[in-house]
Amino acid sequence: MAKRTRDAEFTEYVTSRSSWLRKVAYLLCGDWHRADDLVQETITKLYVHWSKASRATNLDGYARRTLANTFLAEQRTSWWRRTVRTGAERDIAAEGIDLDVSLDLRQALAALPPRQRATVVLRYYCDLSIDQTAEALNCSSGNVKSQSARALDTLRRTFVPAPAVAERMS
Fold first, then answer.
1. Torsion-angle region of 138 (φ positive above 0: left; ψ -120 to 50: alpha; else: beta)
2. Where are the domains of the chain?
3. How is 50-66 classified by DSSP, letter by letter?
4. Is 92 exposed, middle or buried (CB count within 10 Å of its CB: 0-12, 13-18, 19+)?
5. Could you say which DSSP state residue 124 is in?
6. Rounded to an integer, what distance in angstroms lies between the CA atom of residue 17 and that of residue 14?
7. What is the gyration radius of the CA atoms in the chain, in angstroms?
8. Among 5, 137, 114, which residue's Cα sits nearest to residue 61?
9. Cα angle vertex 137, ends 131, 138, to 5°?
10. Do residues 50 and 32 make contact, with C-beta atoms less than 8 angstroms apart?
11. 102: helix, coil or strand?
């Protein structure tokens, strides 16, 4: 494949899918700036391995797996834990969105451990099957099921008030 054709194909793919990758990255990490960094690193990896990626039967799946693995690899390093953002700009919300629910969900996702968060995002936002999620995360389908169950249990406990609290409120 000629370099010019290769670059044109790569540019066309990235241009059409960068917005989607950014949304998935945001759901994984909960920060737009960090999501941009994850997408940039993912795009760089895709470019380096474009000859292999472009031959994939599911290019979006290949990109999604690269993004998820980049996020999980970053979580294993300590540099991001040392970064403290203060005085950061607030993200501008889209009109028509229930901000309370959206913020609660973002906080609940951010509280999940990285593998559980990645599993929930891939299963329920990207609408992947258990087997597709297992392939993307390079783990067994049983692991996806257990990570999903734990994550959903945590999310349910986050959004459902405890009976004692509900009784006191009435």
1. left
2. 1-82, 98-162
3. HHHHTT-S-HHHHHHHH
4. exposed
5. I
6. 5
7. 18
8. 137
9. 80
10. no
11. helix
What are φ and ψ of residue 163, in 5° steps?
A: -55, -40
Give me the residue label for tokens 């950014």.
22
How many CB atoms are located within 10 Å of the residue 134 CB? Answer: 20
Return the residue matching tokens 């909960």.
Answer: 30
- Integer Cα distance of 124 and 120 in angstroms: 6
* 50 backbone dihedrals φ, ψ, rounded to 5°: -60, -35
CATH code of 1-82, in short, is 1.10.1740.10
| Whole-number Å distance between alpha carbons of 153 and 9 | 42
User: Which amino acid makes up residue 115?
Assistant: R
8-60 pLDDT, tens per residue?
999 999 999 999 999 999 999 988 999 999 999 999 999 999 999 999 999 99
Q: Which CATH class is domain 98-162?
A: mainly alpha
> pLDDT tens for residues 70-110?
999 988 876 655 555 554 454 544 445 544 555 577 788 88
DSSP string, 127-157: ---HHHHHHHHTS-HHHHHHHHHHHHHHHHH
Tokens of 90: 């607030």
Q: Which amino acid is at 147?
A: Q
Q: Is the pTM of this model over 0.85?
A: no
